[in-house]
Amino acid sequence: MPPWAREPHVEPADPTGRTHTLLVVGPGDGRTGTAIRAVAAGWQEALGAAPVHRHDCADVAAAVDALHADLAVARVGHRVLVAGTAEACLAVRAAAVRAGLADDELRFGAVAADVRTVWCVHCSATTTAAVAAGGVVACPGCARSLLVYEHVSRRTGHHLGFMVDAEDQPWEESA
Predict the structure, then answer these.
(1) Which of 27, 64, 111, 168 is positioned for an S-S bond with 95, CB 3.0–4.6 A?
(2) 112 phi, psi to nearest 5 deg
(3) How confident is the model at residue 73 (pLDDT cuts 50, 70, 90)?
(4) C-alpha 103: how far from its chain's center?
(5) Predicted TM-score (pTM) of this structure
(6) Roughly what angle, to the nearest 10 degrees, separates helices 86-98 and 60-71?
(7) Contact between 8 and 114 (Cβ < 8 Å)
């Protein structure tokens, strides 16, 4: 799990990039929106005169669409910066990884890390909840109590969830 997915953290912008995509993901108002915009403004200031394609996106789907549009014309040296909640950053990171970007081409500014999307290993359902890594959440698919593991899938951006007391269950041995 990246450090910025554990607690709010802003990685520095990469000044070596030739061009940059800046994805500002989330609400435009409120405390979270103000914090997200502040991260984006700090990055833009740090990058100075470097070309920056800024996209203010209401949600992850819009951010992923903007990412794909910019990557379609990107050249070597392109960098991607994502400002938002950890949940949004993980989802956009997953789309970027699926598109072929490497970790050194990505920077994240997570302003909140209290909400997680959890994938159930038992039924493949996902749930989104305010839960810490190591906490427990109810699966909406199979109703198991899931331990939210620190592992995050690079492909989906979801935390791994598995039955919290699996080792204490009375399992039958096959004959």
Answers:
(1) 64
(2) -155, 145
(3) very high
(4) 13
(5) 0.89
(6) 30
(7) no
